[in-house]
Amino acid sequence: MRLKLLSGLVAALFVAGPALGFEAFEVRDIRVEGIQRTEAGTVFNYLPVRVGDTFTEEQAATAIRELFATGFFSDVRIEVENDVIVVIVDERPAIADITFVGLREFDEKVLKDSLRVIGLAEARTFDRALLERAEQELKRQYLGRGKYAAEVVTTLTPLERNRVGINFTVDEGQVAKIRQIRIVGTNDFDEDDLLDLFALRTPGWLTWYTKNDQYSRQKLSADLEALRSHYLDRGYLDFNIDSTQVSITPDKKDIYITVNITEGEKYTVSDVSFTGDLILPEEEYLSLARIRPGEVFSRANLTETTDAIIDRLGNEGYAFANVNAAPEVDEEKREVSFTIFVDPGRRVYVRRINIGGNTRTRDAVARREMIQMEGAWYDASLISRSRNRIDRLGYFDEVSLQTPAVPGATDQVDVNVTVKERPTGNLALGAGFSSSEKLVLSGSISQDNLFGSGKSLSLGINTAKSGRTVSLSFTDPYYTVDGISVGYDVYHRTYDPSRTLSVARYRSVSTGGGLRVGFPVGLDDKINFGLAVDRTEITTYEDSPDLYKDFCTDFGCSSDSGVGKVTVDSLIASLGWSSDSRDSVLYPRSGTYQRVSLEGSIPPGELKYYKLNYQYQYWLPLGRDNALMLNTNVGWAKGYGGKPVPFYKNFYAGGIGSVRGYEQSSLGRRTADDDPIGGTRLVVGNVEYYFPLPGSGQDRTFRTSLFFDAGYVWDEDEDLDFGQMRYSTGLAFSWSSPLGPLKFSFGFPLNAESGDDVQRFQFQFGSVF
Asked: What are the POTRA domain coordinates in residue numbering (predicted)?
């Protein structure tokens, strides 16, 4: 007798036993029928019975459900024949291949990887539900790209050995473009001015790159919030966005957006008061307020007020302070008063500082930059400065900091520092280009974060048209636990600037080495001392200027005419002070950087000169992503003991690192043959407005800027004549690419005179030494 039990589909839907019952029996044998790819052992593993066991209805129902749940089978049946269990299965087909036709918007490999995540991949069991899900997801991805007319047709092709081929045929269609954006209800502002606040816009000359003419729900939400902020920051307390309509034409090519608003009336602030647990003097709260009576209401100023109070309380250890502003509106007078409630909460201290995200860098490298100590009272200002100090190391692309409360404690927090490491080592043979040096061939091995210890070591061999450099450098920024740094340098340099730069002809070969020591004198300040020995061989030529020939004669030239070679040995001491409060070394947006350096020759060296240089840089954040940078660089050099300043120690100006729009080192004094020879006095100033490259999103490695440069070089026997200053303006771009830093600028001289070497386009790829 052969008894047929429930199929897998029915058993998957009902927990009850089979519709046709049977009496329990002792199993004489077990057979599996219908399998092609699945091993019989896989089926046996799901059977709750073995030969010789007693088989019941409940066991049969359980086995069917579990086999069906594996997803390997489209149907499962159990039959009983003369005390023999017969398991009959219908296997689902396997996916032989997945192909795409008409795919241009997406990369096929990326799509296959995403399908694999949801379980649809070659060699896996085919599931029609997953196929439908994949088809809908692909359509959704096209909608996200603005291709509303995209169609996806899926074709299944049966193949031998119970396999199927899946083909997605895509008709991508055209991208739907925003043809019109309207703001209805505006009276006090021009509609075009309000539309300038939007990222979304109608097609323009740059929208092919930014894609801002393609509709995005997220972008529209951000634009509406920008519109709301615009009104609320200008006193329109009752402003409201009544509705938003987004419509698409029947051919799915054009999109129309209409925003209906009610502006309301403009309000002024009548009073600001503070209440609650005021642990600080009320005068201090008032000084922190950015919103004041008599002024037009601004939500931005109100937010800045509450944030400033929270930050100030955070500096006193109150990490979880709550500050809320309650408005009282007088609609008749169009006035609003604010009562700001202050609840500092409990004062807390830091239990632990945890470092995460570092796979190569040792914890101690980041931890030693922390000025917020474990076991000390929480101080928001110290935590913020600690984050900046870690970021200034230059080892990390991102540094984030969270201060979660300790579970079960009301007066403790942890400080969790999470970093994203960037490559700090380089082993390369390569080439670079610059508008001044032309081709630069280089080979180098360097590691700024040696074995994750924070030490740096570099060996470089660089060759350019103007010369070659071989150098070895090592720096230990924490030679002692107090932050005393020690560094060593050895170099051999050949330099002939006249081959690439507009500089009078000479040639130098320098060999030397030195020791550097740095002492921290504050959280952001450091004093540096250095001592180096140098031997330089100078070669002058018939067409060299008299200044160069005189130097050769003064120090024992190989000929009386001043044309020839001279070797000068020198012992050079240096003293410097630097202060760095920038929020980042690689991508600064706020803070200041100052540097003073004094370099001079000391006995028994043959040279007798000293050289002073001062740089001041100020970064001012503007908005969320923009920044204004002010920079000045002043240099002053003088000889002593009757000796002049060595001409190869002169200052130069002009070029991509100085006054853009003019050739490298071309500004300043010139010879009778119109060759620049530099000078002993230097002044350079730069004003630069940085903003993200459109379309780069949050990628900080791209930076674009508008700049204004000014600078000049003169000698000690001349007076500074601002009429001789050179000015330029233009657009600059920088990118920290995986292959090296890339910089270029379009500079336009504003007062170039006859004889000036103008170079409007300048670039630099890689590092030029």
From this structure: 25-92, 93-173, 176-264, 267-345, 348-422
**What does the pLDDT look like over 512-529, one tens digit per residue?**
999 999 999 888 899 999
Collapsing DSSP to helix, strand or coil, 200 comes out as coil
Q: CATH for 94-171, among 3.40.50.2300, 3.40.50.300, 3.10.20.310, 3.30.70.890?
A: 3.10.20.310
Instruction: Report residue 699's pLDDT band, with 50, 70 and 90 as the boundaries.
Output: low
Of 74, 100, 115, 96, give the one whose Cα is nearest residue 164.
96
- Structure tokens of 497? 């600037």
Cα-trace Rg, the chain: 37
Looking at domain 425-765, which of 3.30.70.20, 3.20.20.70, 2.40.160.50, 3.90.960.10 is its CATH number?
2.40.160.50
Task: Tell me the residue type at 381.
Answer: S
Neighbouring residues of 248: CB distance < 8 A, sequence distance ≥ 6: 148, 176, 254, 255, 256
Mean pLDDT of 574-583: 92
Question: Which residues share a beta bridge with 426?
Answer: 446
Please determine whether the domains at 2-91 and 177-262 fall in the same fold group of CATH: yes
Structure confidence by residue, pLDDT tens digits, 645-687: 888 889 989 888 899 989 888 888 887 777 788 899 999 999 9
Q: What is the rounded CA–CA span in Å between residue 662 and residue 445? A: 33
Into which CATH architecture does domain 268-343 fall? Roll (3.10)
Residue-wise pLDDT tens digits, 63-101: 888 887 777 787 888 888 888 888 888 888 888 888 898
- Is residue 498 within 8 A of residue 524, CB to CB? The reply is no
Residue whose pair of structure tokens reads 């632990």 in the numeric block: 352
pLDDT at 437: 43
Sign of CA dihedral 465, 469, 470, 476: negative
